[in-house]
Design brief:
Layout lengths: L3 H6 L7 E4 L3 E5 L7 E7 L14 H17 L7 E4 L3 H4 L7 E6 L9
Antiparallel strand pairs: 1-2, 2-3, 3-5, 4-5
This protein binds guanosine-5'-monophosphate.
């Protein structure tokens, strides 16, 4: 079954899309945890970080290039931001379709590492 993010990629459910290329889609999180909270999603359905394969190396690089571009577009590149990926239960992952949270727009608290 398609993930909720694939439904957004396929325009079956709405989202505020801020970036797209052939491999990556980025849109605003529905439940933002910071003034800027963007989800940067792989168009390929990879469930978790554990499932990344050799052949996905270029894709993961593309996702980080997209993150840097979006951060610049939103004017948060200089002040800084945080990029988070949750994996499985202990990581708090809810949507099993690989994505990076791009968080910024304020000084972020509660660093755990
Ligand atoms: P995870 O917990 O898997 O790392 O993050 C999933 C994120 O997806 C959550 O921050 C949640 O708010 C967001 N989310 C879940 N469903 C939707 C949706 O339908 N639209 C958007 N824009 N974000 C969603």
């Amino acid at each position: 079954m398609a993930t909720i993010f694939t439904k957004i990629i396929n325009r079956e459910i709405p989202a505020t899309i801020v970036f797209e290329n052939d491999k990556v889609l980025a849109f605003k999180d529905i439940n933002p945890q910071a003034p800027v909270h963007i989800l940067v999603v792989s168009k390929k359905e990879i469930p978790t970080i554990n499932d990344i394969k050799e052949e996905d190396k270029e894709l993961i690089g593309e996702m980080y290039i997209a993150i840097a571009k979006i951060a610049k577009d939103f004017g948060i590149d200089k002040e800084g931001y945080r990029v988070v990926t949750n994996c499985n239960e202990y990581g708090g992952q809810e949507v099993f379709h690989i994505h990076f949270h791009l968080l910024g727009g304020k000084k972020l608290g509660a660093k755990i590492i």
